[in-house]
């Protein structure tokens, strides 16, 4: 299938998307193309990590209190260096950095970018798929270097979102609000070619993704929903568990095959906790993608992810995301309707 579409590169698709907007300046196109280059660099390093001796821990922890892997550091630095003088970004935020990341003076642009440089990095040493997730907004401030308020915008205001997954092949999936497209990297020529045009997530599925190790901490709403999926109901066959433990990998599989991913609050964290996953770097960009593909993304109390206005750079949220009918069924349970 890939060979038949080799003429359609990600750069061409990005340009075609720009043509849908006669008022476009080309800045977003340039920004996305710079992200493509960063993804290629990270992909090459991921593939050579074992030989290059950059597996393992870096010896420090991030703002989340998590151990930082060596490849985390490399991916984070690669994206920051690419973005800080690309001329299209006014301010950045990374899951790995405490505060906003300014761009170089004189290189300020009209967009912001928030990114998780290497989601699922705890799986690096065992060769499980990992990925880069990104979210792009238009700046709110008038000019010059951006500020934190430029970044603290709700997901519905995103102009683009996507991820690059590094697995058996390297795949970039992105949207600019006109559908979702996937591109596979051909390492022989160093180019991403269209492999998954106009992705549509199945309306329903037979798969769920959740960490069942936390089952004894779940609230009844989550437990009852999962039990319903396992047993089946009427015409609905029993669902099967598919869980990798790398959000970007679990999401990508569900986007292509159909499925629902859950990371809800539980008795251990408490009903009033924020949840686990990061709004800016994970939930919001994936929510834009899934809605563009026909799916849904909500919190465990029924809020649409894209409607949440973040109040800090590292805000966390509970997340239920995936096939529309599966998420709607989950919402019934979360609201006590089952």
Secondary-structure element string: HHHEEHEEEEHEEEEEHEHEEHEEEH
Task: Give a short account of the largest sheet.
Answer: 8 strands, mixed
Strand ordering within the main sheet: 4-3-5-6-7-8-9-10
Quaternary status: single chain
Number of strands: 17
Cα(first) to Cα(last) distance is 43 Å
Compute the CA-based radius of gyration. 19 Å
Shape: globular
Discrete helix count: 9
Please state roughly what percent of the residues sit in beta strands, choosing from under 5%, 5-15%, 15-25%, 25-35%, 35-45% or over 45%. 15-25%
List the helices and strands and how they pair.
Elements: H1 10-19, H2 27-47, H3 49-52, E1 57-61, E2 67-69, H4 70-83, E3 89-94, E4 101-102, E5 111-119, E6 130-138, H5 148-151, E7 160-166, E8 170-175, E9 180-186, E10 191-196, E11 207-209, H6 220-231, E12 240-241, H7 247-257, E13 260-263, E14 277-278, H8 279-292, E15 296-298, E16 316-317, E17 319-322, H9 324-334
Parallel strand pairs: 3-5, 11-12, 11-13
Antiparallel strand pairs: 1-2, 3-4, 5-6, 6-7, 7-8, 8-9, 9-10, 13-17, 14-16, 15-17
Helix pairs in contact: 1-2, 2-4, 6-9
